[in-house]
Amino acid sequence: MSKEVPRISEAEWEVMKVFWSKAPATANDVIDVLGDNTDWKPATIKSLINRLLNKKALGFQQAGKTYLYFPLVSEEECLKAESSSFLQRLYGGALKPMLVNFLKQEQLTAEEVEDLKKLLDERKR
Predict the structure, then answer these.
(1) Please, are residues 97 and 91 in contact by the beta-carbon 8 Å criterion?
(2) pTM for the predicted model, two decimal places
(3) What pLDDT band is residue 91 in, cutting at 50, 70 and 90?
(4) How many C-beta atoms lie closer than 10 Å to residue 8's C-beta?
């Protein structure tokens, strides 16, 4: 039985990206990274970390007075869950209409078209 992947908000996703790239990490490590890229206050980032702990997306271990946080779910697991949720919500779970919509809306380079053709050919086999 596969484990339930927690639903992660857009803001929480930014915090998780730090942990996926650098774990274990302290809250201050995350504040340092996100402080440069967002206008979030340290308290906001700590609140997001606590929400992720409550959702069981993060775990921690205590080293003296320092808490080291680490992801309990992989980025791949979260991407798969989000993709599935998106597909279900917007397209009733049907992949073809979503692909057709994206292909009509997006400008693809010749290289991207070739990559897609290769992927489809591999799936056909």
Answers:
(1) yes
(2) 0.75
(3) confident
(4) 20
